[in-house]
Amino acid sequence: xxxxxxxxxxxxxxxxLKKAFALLQKADPKEIDYDMxxxxxxxxxxxxxxxxGKLLKKSLKPYFHSSKAVDMLTFKDIFRHATxxxxxxxxxxxxWLVYRDNRNTTAHDYGLGFAEETLKLLPQFxxxxxxxxxxxxxxxxK
Length: 142
Hints:
Layout: H1 8-26, H2 32-60, H3 67-71, H4 75-84, H5 90-106, H6 112-141
Helix pairs in contact: 1-2, 1-6, 2-4, 2-5, 2-6, 4-5, 5-6
C-alpha cells in the first residue's frame, strides 16, 4: 500500500504566509499593522521550514533501507538527499539551506535586522514552498 503524504497543513501555512506578506507590503511601516504582519510572516516562515523538512523526510523513506536511517538525517541532510534522488534540484537545495540558516538565526535574534533579512527571502521562499508541495503531491501519485 502506498503511503500518502498529506500536504494540507503546509499548503494552509503557505496561504497564510502569502496573505500576511501581501498585507505587509501594503502596510505603513510606522503602524502597528506592519509589525503584526511582519510577525505573522516570520512565524509562518518558521513553521513552513519545519513542515517542509518533515514532509520531505517522508518522501525520502522509499530510498533508504529503513525508516530509522531517514529519521536520523539532519534537516540539511534531508535536502541534500532529496537532491541526490532528484526530488529537488541543486539550486533549490541551496536555497533551502539558506532558509534553514536564516530560520536558525530567527530562533536566536529577535531584532529588526533578522526580520528584514527574512522578508527579503520570502518571494523566492513562497515559490520554493509551492514547488515542494507540488513535488510531494506528484510523488503521491506514483
